[in-house]
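Thread: Modeling a multi-component assembly for a lab meeting

Hi all, long-time lurker, first post. My supervisor asked me to bring a structural picture of a complex we are working on to next week's group meeting, and I have zero experience with this. I have the sequence lines for every component (945 residues in total). Could someone generate the structure of the whole assembly? Inputs are pasted exactly as I received them:
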Amino acid sequence: MGIEGIGARVLRKEDKRFITGQGRYTDDHKVAGMHYAAFVRSPHAHAKIKKINSKAANQMPGVVGVFDGKQLTGDGIGNIICGWMIHSKDGSPMNMGAWSALATEYVRYVGDAVAVVIAETLAEAKAAAEAVDVSYKVLKAVINAEDALKDGAPQLHPEAKNNTIFDWEIGDEAATDAAFKGAANVVEMDIRNNRLVPNAIEPRSALAEYDAAEDHFTLHTTSQNPHVARLVLSAFYQVAPENKLRVIAPDVGGGFGSKIYIYPEEIVCLWAAKKARVKAIKWTADRSEAFITDAHGRDHVSKAKMAFDADNRILGFKIDTIANIGAYMSLFSSSVPTYLYATLLSGQYNIANIHCNVRTVYTNTVPVDVYRGAGRPEAAFLVERMMETAARQLDVDPAELRRLNFVREFPHQTPVIFCYDAGDYETSLNAAMEAADYANFEKRRKRSARKGKLRGIGMSCYIEACGIAPSAAVGSLGAGVGLWESAEIRVNPVGTVEILTGSHSHGQGHETTFGQLVSDRFGLPSENVQVIHGDTDKVQFGMGTYGSRSGAVGMSAIEKALDKVEDKAKKIAAHMLEASEGDIEIKDGEVSVKGTDKKLLWHEVCLGAYTGHNLPEGMEPGLKEGAFYDPTNFTFPAGCYICEVEVDPDTGTTTIEQFVAADDFGKIINPMIVEGQVHGGVAQGIGQAMMENAEYDDSGQLISASYMDYTMPRADDLPSFKVSTTETLCPGNPLGMKGCGEAGAIGSPPAVINAITNAIGHNNLPMPASPHNVWAAVQAGE
Amino acid sequence: MAKVEMTVNGRMTSANVEDRTLLVDYLREEKNLTGTHVGCDTSQCGACVVHVDGKAVKSCTVLAVQAAGSDVRTIEGLAGDDQLHPMQEAFRNNHGLQCGFCTPGMIMSAVDMVNRLGPKLSEATIRAELEGNICRCTGYHNIVKSIAAGAKAMGKGMKKAAE
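Re: Modeling a multi-component assembly
Sure thing. I ran the full set together rather than chain by chain. Output:
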């Protein structure tokens, strides 16, 4: 592998600029003639727009334009799309309501954009936005998904009767019902998965430039997938044709899913730059704006029951879920509570019969979409809360119940589409139990009890699906895009290498790990390798980074392109050295003939490719190869997390005494970076489990809309984590990688809640298990 | 409008700014020192931490006029040219950053922590002292490690200087 190859703990190349303040995020960019946008937003959760009076605002200092939704749609800017078509179980397509980037007739959540002010300075834009007079007829709002389904509930979109977008199912209901009939025991639960706000620390930002002479746009934006942004802005929103629009996602300060989508602000800034005849418009969200405009995550309510035979083997699992989609359907919102969720309800277990019904509903809240894990945390939470609860009810050890039901032979076809390709669940369970000193927990519980504290332990054996799937497969399930990735390897005449990738790094360290593939392959030092990403003018196309796909899919594309480069370099070297191609070896920066002392330096071969003086007959000069890689299957990372807590019954304060993660991510390129991904994911999962909640009041105001009100995990809320990995290689891609970006957020919430409910002795505890909720649960009892 | 003068990273600077201009905007917009970030609007996240007269402050909560006449140090001026401060080095060596957005504030807070409390910092102390800095990527695990290592390295530097 070499000191910088696959498996090495290479320090990050990108760090130098970040630790010295030289990172270049969107808001750090300035251009001459730059104006600023401020949005006028609805203060109501549901209202009809009666009139927008922008006369006063238009006359304020510095203002060059005030625009509303009628002007936007009048200019042919298209409605915001949802990129995944889901059909209800009756075969009808999902009932999608219209979403204009600026509202035209109705506003449907607090924060819905109504108008935009463009002015010379930010202060002028904000002041004028305050002066735009919008009169509303306030309508009744509905916040909770269950309420939205009730008769007489306020209706959001005429297209969606009873606010229902689709009523979908997966699995065989009759077979599952039959399995329950033969059950010795049935365990039932009601489970709510709390709504979260992603909260990347860099707020979203857009800088839209318009070159009138060329009729060309450039957009700097906080995006996880700039090419997808360009495609959607062009093909669906009609902002500009793709050849007239360059999208750059420079340094991006965290995404977690929330920066996948193309939001109203980006559309409006581009459109308004041309309309207001200004060179450029910048908009950067402040945190309050981020809370009410960034897509939220989770927000499911489910009823679940699991059937067991007399030997505690699972016979069937039946789930009824209602997913709150918010006021509009965001880009991937329909895929989250369906194919990213219900397909994982088999967990790590052999379950012959599963049926899940999902209803998705509109409410007067911020749109809900992918947030770290996206559907998979909701599935893992259901399955692993159920397994723990079942173990308690059946009076068996939770680890033993899981062990008894583990999938042990691969490939394993579940009844909910997925075919698990590889895994070893028992090994990660054992590794976690050993690291947690599970065997001696009762001693520690007694020690806590002597101090008047309640100690609990809980585990979670999660599975997830990453990389996303073969394009044809996701297409057949309704996806509007393919989920391959592209790469190009440009070898320069001096032998240095540029990797152009369609993946996007916003914290994942691609500039380092992608380079490791080249170091590994040719033995080149990492300083000779440059990773180029995030610019549609430089990289041909790419699907971007989400779904833990940049390793399993993005790096596979790089490997494929490297194969081609290696192949051509060997042909050139064989020709130059008058040897057989099969005898050529590339190692440590040298290209040699095996078993001889005949060799060339790497850069001599590269230079030879470019001079073209001595190439094999018919070969084109140059050394540059591209590849598109389409995955052959999902990948299936899995692992076991164990959480141990101590609860103060008098205050409800819960401390995490230890948190253990044992993950199987397949092949690991850089363990340092993988561990960092697990730490961050686990912290977000603990945040969901114990702190975070997007809380609305009955009128639809988000009352947890700042860091004073929405509890972000801080350093002293968390312990240091004990993380380790086990390895079964993924057979579906060249490196055997599975993906590690989301596992922490997927596997940890059930482990935490299992631990706290174990400590307090009953299940009557809502998530987040805040001190107040824990205290109330201790007081209330079962 | 007010004319404001202050030393920033060892250099005298001045600008005519609106009275309401925040120090962070003076640095980012007037002086193009974009290493200091804005992550919230309630003085919670700490991405904007700089040193004013040797003390860590959240530059989103200070008016530029309040800093007039002060000696301000930002992440860009923490170390000399082409050198890294031991705390910067420690963040890199311990993978104490991912997206990098909170990092300048984290590092400035960490240096202040060592300046106030000395180079021997327990994990509990570091975690408690980080209450004003939010990171969404790292789960703090490696930030805590980085600060402990950076503090130790700063301690060695202090000892050397004393000798």
